[in-house]
């Protein structure tokens, strides 16, 4: 089952782990080992929260809208240079308790992507940008606008999961991966108009963070 068709209320990524922990919870409950029952019950609840996979109502009424790819809080909005090209950088931080599914920002095509497997250091560690697991994806809209999304894992025992193919077509809000906890950066064209500020909470597949061709 591809992640695009992973529509069950619990993501397929959590099936095996929740099944094993659930079986242990039932065993300890039946044998009266209450301490282990409590521990496995708490772990099961945490896994169910982390791997929950709710449906999202993507708005189809926003022309040229850019939808957030991740749940979390906007940390900053700033201009930056990428290979001498001016772009707008929107940084979003998602916690372990946010929904972990990643979603496409608009109707478009995957231009390319790469994944670097690595550590999961806290982001305040100066080595996190160099050593942490990271995925970078390029999306191009049907009108030719290209954005880049960078996902960086932080303090998580669950790896980043990206299920994409080059030149794959995606609908706005469709699932393309998993990030349990970390930082996501959306690099938008200079001509985009950003509609969020630092401190705003956004939801993947629903919250409009900006508009293309708005200059």
General description of the model:
It is a single chain. The radius of gyration is 18 Å and the shape is elongated. The mean pLDDT is 91. Helix 1 packs antiparallel against helix 2 (34-50). The longest helix has 17 residues, at 15-31. It has helices at 15-31, 34-50, 128-131; strands at residues 65-67, 72-82, 85-94, 101-103, 108-116, 134-141, 146-153, 161-162, 169-170, 175-178, 182-189, 193-194, 201-202, 208-211. It is of the alpha+beta class and 215 residues long. The protein has 3 helices and 14 strands.
Largest sheet features? 8 strands, antiparallel
Dominant shape: elongated
C-alpha termini separation: 40 Å
Number of helices: 3
Strand line-up across the major sheet: 9-5-6-7-11-3-2-13
Broad structural category: alpha+beta
Spans of at least 5 consecutive residues with low confidence: none
Q: Per DSSP, what share of the residues sits in E-state strands of 2 or more residues? A: 35-45%
Please, what is the average pLDDT? 91
Number of strands: 14
Give the topology string: H per helix, E per strand. HHEEEEEHEEEEEEEEE
Radius of gyration from the alpha-carbon trace, in angstroms: 18 Å
């Amino acid at each position: 089952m591809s992640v695009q068709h992973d529509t069950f209320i619990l993501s397929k990524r959590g099936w095996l782990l929740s099944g094993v922990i659930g079986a242990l919870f039932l065993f300890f409950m039946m044998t009266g080992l209450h301490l282990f029952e409590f521990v496995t019950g708490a772990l099961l609840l945490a896994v169910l929260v982390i791997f929950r996979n709710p449906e999202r109502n993507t708005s189809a009424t926003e022309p040229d809208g850019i939808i957030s790819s991740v749940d979390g809080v906007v940390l900053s909005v700033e201009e930056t240079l990428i290979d001498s090209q001016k772009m707008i950088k929107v940084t979003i931080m998602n916690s372990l308790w946010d929904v972990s599914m990643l979603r496409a920002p608009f109707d478009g095509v995957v231009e390319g992507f790469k994944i670097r497997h690595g550590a999961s250091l806290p982001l305040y560690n100066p080595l996190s940008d160099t050593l942490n697991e990271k995925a970078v994806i390029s999306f191009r809209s049907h009108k030719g606008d290209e954005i880049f999304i960078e996902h960086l894992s932080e303090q998580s025992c669950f790896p980043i999961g990206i299920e994409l193919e080059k030149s794959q077509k995606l609908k706005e809000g469709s699932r393309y991966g998993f990030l349990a906890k970390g930082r996501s950066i959306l690099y938008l064209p200079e001509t985009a108009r950003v509609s969020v500020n630092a401190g705003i909470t956004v939801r993947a597949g629903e919250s409009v963070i900006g508009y293309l061709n708005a200059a």
